[in-house]
């Protein structure tokens, strides 16, 4: 598995994959974009939920398998706060045939290592819908701990408010 920057055509491929209706429920944002709306897609990926996060361009990589030309998903650092050395992280395996096979976890491990060692980030957070048990379990296995439950903090595409878990791992506790 390889993480690398994506061309617009590869982001357009992810947009096609994101048309899966169940993704809105697990990701918490409208995943339906015009095929060439790469800016809108990146803006949605950039949305952050935590109070110390700051508006910034995400550091976003495509998740590629050696045997495939196009990415199966993405991993992103967003909301980078250079003063506090914090960032939020997000991952999505959008190609259903590769979901649940460990690629998201491996992509997270690589991005977290990059953030701690190359960017000197001290704390990485994940904001995860309470209902998204798969993502919650994945980050727990990577050493993230629940910092807070943020009740009614995320506006879902249907207008309802959802609860989010604020989970964190620090460079001091990272052991992978």
Description:
It is a single chain. 28% of the residues lie in helices and 31% in strands. The chain is an alpha+beta fold. The protein has a single domain (2-170), classed as Gcn5-related N-acetyltransferase (GNAT) (Aminopeptidase), CATH 3.40.630. A seven-stranded mixed β-sheet has the order 1-2-3-4-5-7-6, with helices on both faces. A hairpin with a 5-residue loop joins strand 6 (145-155) and strand 7. The two termini are 17 Å apart.
Provide a compact summary of the structure.
The protein is of the alpha+beta class and 176 residues long.
Brief descriptors of the model:
alpha+beta, seven-stranded mixed sheet, Aminopeptidase, 176 residues
The average pLDDT score comes to 93
- Rg calc: 15 Å
Taking pLDDT < 50 over at least 5 consecutive residues as the criterion, the unreliable ranges are none
Topology, number of strands: 7
CATH domain topology? Aminopeptidase
Give the count of structural domains.
1
The separation of the N and C termini measures 17 Å
**Structural class per helix/strand content?**
alpha+beta
Q: What layout of secondary structure does this protein have?
A:
Layout lengths: L1 E3 L3 H10 L4 H6 L10 H9 L12 E6 L8 E9 L4 E8 L9 H15 L5 E7 L3 H9 L3 E11 L5 E10 L6
């Amino acid at each position: 598995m390889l993480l690398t920057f994506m061309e617009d055509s590869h982001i357009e491929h992810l947009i096609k994959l994101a048309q899966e209706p169940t993704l809105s429920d697990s990701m918490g944002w409208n995943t339906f974009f015009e095929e060439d709306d790469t800016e809108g897609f990146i803006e949605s990926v950039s949305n952050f939920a935590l109070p110390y996060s700051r508006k910034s361009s995400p550091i976003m990589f495509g998740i590629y398998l050696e045997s495939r030309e196009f990415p199966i998903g993405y991993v992103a650092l967003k909301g980078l706060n250079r003063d506090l050395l914090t960032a939020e992280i997000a991952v999505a395996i959008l190609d259903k045939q590769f979901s649940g096979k460990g690629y998201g976890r491996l992509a997270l491990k690589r991005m977290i290592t990059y953030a701690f060692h190359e960017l000197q980030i001290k704390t990485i957070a994940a904001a995860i819908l309470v209902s998204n048990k798969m993502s919650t379990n994945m980050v727990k296995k990577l050493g993230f701990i629940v910092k807070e439950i943020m009740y009614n903090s995320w506006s879902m595409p249907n207008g309802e408010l959802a609860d989010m878990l604020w989970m964190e791992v620090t460079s001091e506790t990272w052991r992978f």
